[in-house]
Amino acid sequence: MPEIQVLGNQKSILANQKTILTNQKTLLANQKTIVKNQEVIKKNQTRLDQILKNQVTILALLKK
Questions:
Q1: Cα separation of 2 and 56, whole Å?
Q2: For every one of its 64 residues, what pLDDT tens digit does the chain have, with 9 covering 90 and above?
């Protein structure tokens, strides 16, 4: 009887390891997506900074 329990536990451990591997793959994929999104955000922030500078310039010209 204990042997059956050990086998059952081993099966559970293997199933859990498989789940862990699947989750790790998902996490890595998500991290890759996050890095890509951060790059896009950085580019957008740079563009927004330039727009703000342009608006300040335009406002200064309009006040003349």
A1: 78
A2: 789 999 999 999 999 999 999 999 999 999 999 999 999 999 999 999 999 999 999 999 999 8
